[in-house]
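Key result, reporting period 2: structure in, sequence out.
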């Protein structure tokens, strides 16, 4: 009997999660061309900075005896 209650709560949680996902998708909009370009530039800059930091850390670790 306890197993049945757990199963219902899991199914209920999944239903609630799917409803929330649909709600979020309903209020989102497709970015226009300018907004998309800005997002791409910022993302590329962030990846470049993180890569540079990782590269510098690797170089420092290699040169420290």
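The corresponding designed sequence is given below.
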């Amino acid at each position: 009997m306890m197993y049945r209650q757990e199963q219902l709560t899991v199914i209920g949680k999944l239903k609630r999660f799917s409803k929330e996902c649909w709600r979020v998708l309903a209020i989102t909009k497709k970015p226009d061309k300018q907004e998309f370009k800005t997002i791409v530039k910022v993302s590329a800059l962030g990846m470049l900075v993180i890569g540079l930091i990782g590269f510098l850390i690797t170089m420092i670790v290699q040169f420290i005896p």
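The helical segments are 2-27, 33-63. Residues 1-29 form one domain. This case is discussed further under Risks and Mitigation.
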